[in-house]
């Protein structure tokens, strides 16, 4: 194919993203990981599924970045999850180093690529990739809002017993406890959910959305979510690759929008061939703006803590 997407990190999220891309026949896929054999084995397994899934995407698993040269999009999932006994600072320091090294290699071989960051803590890792790549801000994007909105949409669909396709959700802010789901901008076939659900139930769904990742971790015991995060990253990649110009909530570098300066924060953006082609500013009520400000402050705290590290 004439399009190429590289996925860095062949763990659950990365491998599932590679599968989604291949089965949608979006682009050839380069799957990179530092563990010898892992990306090669997963790419070969996916290639052997191709005759059944009926696509002709080329899948390459590798431990080097040379095959990724000239990628249109690079999805970065590399990093470690927080382990028992590990402090937030330990996680930040380790993943900062990993994402920095990965991004430098990616920028070297694919200087025109759009970067989609999935590594955690996501908003902080966007800053690492932004600085390490020296790419313009429109080509460094964090995957969070698409996932958070999808969780909100799923919970609403379960409650109302309607198709998920009828539901559009708006979630702002950082990817974490301080995210800001906006019920009045969340609709079912154009009808705000505030017209369909009582306030106390909406509050419950908002809380469940904020805890969406933690709920899955508590159920799995030994892992975290990967199907939905992979799908979210691939939806973003598809809008960029096909220049579909979808309006999606993504972590974007703000320079005054929503009163936020110099931070990656989740807001609605238009995703097209150039990456982020427009940041959409919606009118917020005072309490919504306050909540977004608190979310941005939590992101800034992470970024400042990370910048103090060697």
What key attributes describe this structure?
three-stranded antiparallel beta sheet, globular, L-2-Hydroxyisocaproate Dehydrogenase, Chain A, domain 2, 310 residues, Rossmann fold, 2 domains, six-stranded parallel beta sheet, single chain, alpha/beta, 9 helices
Describe this structure in words.
- The protein has about 300 residues and is α/β, with parallel strands linked by helices.
- It is about 45% helix and about 20% strand.
- The chain is built from nine helices and 14 strands.
- It has helices at about 10-25, 40-55, 90-110, 120-135, 145-160, 200-210, 210-220, 225-240, 285-305; strands at about 5-10, 30, 60, 75, 115, 140, 165-170, 170, 180, 185-190, 190, 245-255, 260-270, 275-280.
- The chain has a six-stranded parallel β-sheet with strand order 3-2-1-4-5-6, sandwiched between helices. The protein has a three-stranded antiparallel β-sheet with strand order 7-10-11, with helices on one face. A three-stranded antiparallel β-sheet has the order 12-13-14.
- Helix 5 (about 145-160) crosses helix 6 and helix 5 crosses helix 8.
- The longest helix has 22 residues, at about 90-110.
- The radius of gyration is 19 Å and the shape is globular.
